[in-house]
Amino acid sequence: MAKTANQAENAQLKDIISHAKEYGFVYPSSEIYDGLQAVYDYGAYGVELKNNLKRLWWETMTRLHGNIVGIDAAIFMHPTTWKASGHVDSFNDPMIDNKDSKKRYRADVLVEEHAAKLENEGKEDEAKALTASLARLLEAEDLAGVRDLIVNTGIACPISGTTNWTDVRQFNLMFSTQVGSVAEDASTIYLRPETAQGIFVNFLNVQKTARMKVPFGIAQIGKAFRNEIVARQFIFRMREFEQMEMQFFVRPGSELEWYKQWAETRMNWHLALGTPAEKLRKHDHEKLAHYANAAMDIEYEFPFGFKEVEGIHSRTDFDLKSHQEFSKKKQQYFDPEINQNYIPYVIETSIGADRLFLLTLCNAFTEEKTEEKSRTYLKFHPAIAPVKAAILPITKKDGLPEKAKEIVELLKYDFNIIYEDAASIGKRYTRQDLIGTPFCIAVDHQTLEDNTVTIRHRDTTEQERVSISELHGKIAEATSFRRVFEKI
Ligand code: GAP
Q: Is 194 near ligand 1, meaning CB less than 6 Å away?
């Protein structure tokens, strides 16, 4: 029977997940205990890829822009931070439990999934009406209405098959813990659900000590934690993840101009990294959060459809103003050009490092089938490939390993290099294809005579003979971040 589009997409995601595990990119966390839902560990090649993506983002922000500097704020923050930011009161998802299976679901996701099912069955009008009702009820914060919608539509629990639902309740996504050694003295603090607040509370520290003038930005990479209930689609939605956020502080009134500019700059960054334009799209938010006056997502077409990778938000002066109110400390900037004090407005660019990793993996995963052979390889941009080159003596004798190791010495200080002398050269090429190494350098008997080697290129499998003295320059040229920067 022919596969439906959905089945094919799921099969592709499954292939990517098993490839990621088998070839050292991503494993389920604490797998020997059967894992922990929505938490993952990065393996030998995964950590290299993720570090390269983070470094590329960091250097784009801090090196290409003379007016952006970085910080590294702590994960724990004073609990009032989260009151001021609005997270304590409104960082919630509407949850519903099935009384028979005892399983908990996000109420909105149950309805959305049912609507998607109706759409797949060709009942598009019914699906549209359902999502419109949901939007209306959520907007009005009518949780009883959301429950009625679920029950009246006959949406059943996928486990028990019943519609025996509890009320819908709001569930805060922040993880909390205690600080203090004695129970009575202990106070509740939160694991940060976004890195942005670490930037806001340090706004004046950074502005003064780095002598920044508006407009300027502060960038940060760090862990964030959310008690996500719908935890699916591999590393797309995790409970512990990393964010790369940049808050750009601007003069009030100029924010929408800057918003437009950052939306374009960030889209160009994704294109420069080799993501095809047809796999990316902008999605403007129709319903804006109370603190925003414009917001959009950059979406990527994952095997499970177009989904958000990065958010660009014009956050007005909401956060700084709120911190000023709660802390009773002025969060103002004196602008010498216009001789005025004001609370700057903020444009935020926020991308999940793990989501970018998944995009990169999906985009790189290539299966080629011809009549003679089939080949799977990861077509990473050389600048972010986990391993830049593999040095492979074609035999283990005749002094070839020694010669190959001389080449490793020549390259290892500047590039992540692998040396391998076991198995046939064909098998070793295949293994490097599977982890996305752009260059395989074969050392053979001719190398001993004339100091030349063969470079085998991952994407074309073409080979060229070059002198050892050219290797460093060729690899540097292909893997330099400059290759990406120049296209932004
Ligand atoms: N400071 C703004 C903010 O946190 P967000 O849209 O909630 O906005 C920004 O998150 C980005 O963080 C998302 O576009 C996504 O890439 C990433 N992200 C959010 N929740 C995530 C999760 N549970 N797992 C992985 N990445 C996540």
A: yes
